[in-house]
Write a structure and sequence with these properties.
alpha+beta; six-stranded antiparallel sheet; five-stranded mixed sheet; 14 strands
Amino acid sequence: MPTAPRLVLLDSVTTLGDRQTQALPIEDYPFTIGRARDCHLIVDHTQVSRLHACLEYDHEQVVITDLNSSNGTFVNGERLKANQPRRLRAGDRINLAHVCTLEFDDPGTTVQMLPIEIPTSGLTLDEDGAQVMIDGTRLDPPLSPSQFMLLALLVKNEGKIVTRDDVRNYVWGAGRRYYGSDH
């Protein structure tokens, strides 16, 4: 049976009620976060609203909702819109009003994740002609030059982690100024 999702404390502003632990299991829903003394997770800081955010269990997923807080709830650096739920994934960083950072940990979803095997036996790259063949048939429409370079990098590094810097340097050239976004 999977372990309950939990919030892991990443800074010292937060108090986890009477507990002296750095992780708080999320066992009851809705799970409230804020300055109010009846919240499941009390964040005793003036920048945090009395009822700041809420975690709920929806369709076998944990979602977080900013409860129209004054100073915002952020997930992985992105500010949430008030009263609009957002699905949480294991490893997501939750920041409350830039004073409290938590990490969402969901062992149940992590256990269920299985590696995905992508067959590359039918994939052929013609680097001189910048063409992609799948089972002997040329890909039509062809990939753009940047798309082809990205695919070539991933194929060359099959089974390895490729960082964003690796992608930027290989596709757009090392030392070139890159004006793209993090998306």
